[in-house]
Amino acid sequence: MAFSDAEGNSSVIKGGRKRKRSEATLRPSLTKWRTQGEQSSYSTKLYEALRRVHRSSPSTAVNRRSQNVREAADRALAVAARGRTRWSRAILISHKPKLKLKARRPRPAVPSSKRSKMLAFVQGEHSASKKTKKSTILEDKAVVLGRLVPGGRKLSFPTLLEEASDYIAALQMQVRAMSVLSAILSSSTSNESFHQEPDRINF
């Protein structure tokens, strides 16, 4: 009995060590965005990205320019992540120039009778699947979360939670950096702030 107890205690200790190790491996990914070094690195990248947007589109419409600013901020955030996460890689891939695809040949028209039969079949299958497949609340939330996190649609739930935690921490840092830059720009009456040195942009 003593031997089995010792084994049980040792297994608990080993399990505790494994748990601590897993927590230790997750901890840096959640706290790295709160360090001064990461904030300074991102603020510099964001500053340079906004300068490029300012130089390349000085007379662009307001809606398009705000979209360019959002894309530049997200791209700078992904670069700051150094491709270590799936969401950062998904952002970088989505901003790559897309190749022009060749125009496809038009498909022959389906007769109306066949089309109506196909629609009826698809609708019947869809209604049947709705009745047979009832998603749980957790699965529904996972689907929504997967849509919000870049590259998170096909991830397993534990990996999705890990990516979402890191992405939220990164977005919080992005908000802080953009708030500082917004305060700097709003305090100036001209565009002189875009000629300011990056190391003067502090949190």
Outline the structure in words:
The protein is mainly alpha-helical and 203 residues long. The chain has a domain at 33-96 and 134-203. 70% of the residues lie in helices and 0% in strands. The chain has helices spanning 2-31, 36-56, 62-80, 86-94, 112-132, 137-148, 157-186. The longest helix is centred in the N-terminal third of the chain and has 30 residues, at 2-31. The model is unreliable at 1-16 and 18-28 (pLDDT under 50). One of its GO terms (biological process) is regulation of DNA-templated transcription. Residues 1-40 are annotated as: Disordered.
Q: Which H/E pattern describes the elements?
A: HHHHHHH
Number of helical regions: 7
Specify the structural class: mainly alpha
Q: Show unreliable segments.
A: 1-16, 18-28
Keywords: Nucleus, Transcription, Transcription regulation
InterPro entries: bHLH_AtIBH1-like, HLH_DNA-bd_sf, IBH1-like, IBH1_N
Pfam family, one: IBH1_N
GO biological process, one term: regulation of DNA-templated transcription
Nutshell version of this structure?
This protein has 203 residues and is mostly helical. It has seven helices and no strands. Helices cover 70% and strands 0% of the residues.
List descriptors.
nucleus, transcription, 0% strand, 203 residues, mainly alpha, 70% helix, 7 helices, disordered N terminus, bHLH_AtIBH1-like, transcription cis-regulatory region binding
